[in-house]
Amino acid sequence: MQYAQKALLFLCVFSFASIAQAQKKQPKTKPVTVIKAAGDTSAPKTVTITSAFKPFLKNAAKVNFSAATPVIDSSRIPVNYQVPSQNLFFSYQPVAIKPLALAVDSGYEWTNHQYIKLGAGNFSSYYAEAGFSFGDGKHSITNIKGNFLTTTGHLFAQQANKWGLDVLSIFNSGTDHEWTTHAFYNTQTQYLYGFQPATIPYTKDDLLRQYNTVGFDIGMRNKMANAFGITYHPQFSFVRIANNLEANGYDVVLKLPVNKSFGKIYAFDLGLTADMSTASVPVISNSVELRNNLYYLNPSIQFNTPNVKVNAGIQPSWDNKSFSMLPNFTAEAKLSDASLMFQAGWVGYFQKNTFRSLVAFNPWIGSLASLKNTRIREQYVGVQGAAGDHLTFAGRFSLLNLNDQPLFVNDPGDGKTFIVAFEPEMKAIRVHGELGYTVQEKFSFLAAATYTSYNSLSVNAKPWGLLPLEATGTAKYKLLKDLQLKADVFLWDGAAYQDKSLQSFKSGAVADLNFGAEFTVIPRLNLWLQMNNLLNSNYQRWNQYPVLGFNVLGGVVYSFK
Q1: CA 446/CA 378 separation, integer angstroms
Q2: Contact 186/210 with Cβ under 8 angstroms?
Q3: Contacts of 68 (CB under 8 A, 6+ apart)
Q4: From first to last of its 561 residues, what are the pLDDT tens digits of the chain?
Q5: How deeply is 503 buried, as exposed, middle or buried, from its count of CB atoms within 10 A (0-12, 13-18, 19+)?
């Protein structure tokens, strides 16, 4: 019995081993029955294997994330900022920087300023001035100014008065163009008191000269170069002047300048000017019509770098149908390590002489016999620069050839009027210098002097009425917060003149000193004082016309919005 049990156990183990081996070779297994040995009376036992092979996928390996240093990115995100212009004064779009004037801070808020200035002084002098401003300072602005002055001297008919009105407007058209309009009217009344001998029985009506001038001009410019690099500034002006003797004159001027840039260095400049003038002068019972027309072009090539500027061009001109070709060559060179600039040039230009310009230069002229323009050719060398933070200077030496230069000679009668004589040809040597010194807004000084030696006159013996030496100087000093002082000096050497016996003489040297002050009483009310000819000199700018002696004016200025 024991042997039978052991045999059965052995058989079972063997069967299990065989089944396991078969499972490796066959995908499925069948039940196994254990057969009992003979003579075994125990309960039959059957071993049934019911498990079967089941395919399965191997578990995937788990992904483990490990910390790593981030990659360095050196690129920058482009961020563009556009700040709109706000409350700009006269500037509607950002423009290129030009060393011509101090740009107004964009934070400045424009406010309209108005003022009235009144004063009186000796020589029965009365003065009035007023200024008004309208607009926002960004899209448009209009300035209106008026003035009046009257004075009476000690000599017979030594009396004069003048008043005028001036209107200037600037408008913004879109974003690229600016329009400028200017209209004015003024009246100047005076008497020809410089007659000799003084016993001539003239009446004031015989000596009266009254000039009325009215005019306007209009211009348009693009504030920035267009897409083709072109800038332009056309201008048109008209002026009429007339006096109480029925003499009058008209001036019409048209200018069309255009500039084309080629990159940042080269540019082409072209301008057309048409300057037309007429004058009607009464002669006995008739009137003589005088015409004076001038037309010219000025094409030139420009070369501009930070240290060198060169302009090379010509100026073909038609002066009263007479053609002339004038040069237009200039050069500037700046030392890179110093604030010093050298200048040189060979240029030609015209000085337009009209009835109005001659009266402005010498208010005592008589009847005109002709009108001619002065043609000037100039060769010069110069220098300008700065020394330190406060001192500026400039100087120029010139050689000039002048054609048809107007000279002024006392008429051979009583000498109260001047005859305008045009010198056909003359030469001159001119030396000019300037000096300036500025300390913030507290103190400023500016002086200039010009010496001219006229020679080689072809018709006249002397340059009648032209000053050989002129010097001016002005100084402003802010002594206190509410007190400002000003001083002016005018120096010149006398001009040559001719008496009734046709003898030539020369006026004496002149020194005219002036002083002024302005003091703030309340925030909008100021007191002002102006003293002229402090040396009380009885000098003459024009022969036989002595000026007033020491004179003083004083008054108030009130400013309001």
Answers
A1: 26
A2: no
A3: none
A4: 455 555 555 555 555 555 555 454 444 444 545 455 455 555 555 656 555 556 656 665 555 555 555 555 555 555 555 545 444 443 344 444 444 444 444 444 556 679 999 999 999 999 999 999 988 878 889 999 999 999 999 999 999 999 999 999 999 887 789 999 999 999 999 999 999 998 999 999 999 999 999 999 999 999 888 888 899 999 999 999 999 999 999 999 999 999 999 988 999 999 999 999 999 998 877 889 999 999 999 999 999 998 999 999 999 999 999 999 999 999 999 986 678 999 999 999 999 999 999 999 999 999 899 999 999 999 999 999 998 889 999 999 999 999 999 999 999 989 999 999 999 999 999 999 999 999 988 999 999 999 999 999 999 999 999 999 999 999 999 998 899 999 999 999 999 999 888 899 999 999 999 999 999 999 899 999 999 999 999 899 999 999 999 999 999 999 986
A5: exposed
Q: Show the 3-state SS of 182-241.
A: EEEEEEEEEECCCCCCCCCCCCHHHHEEEEEEEEEEEEEEECCCCCCCEEECCEEEEEEE
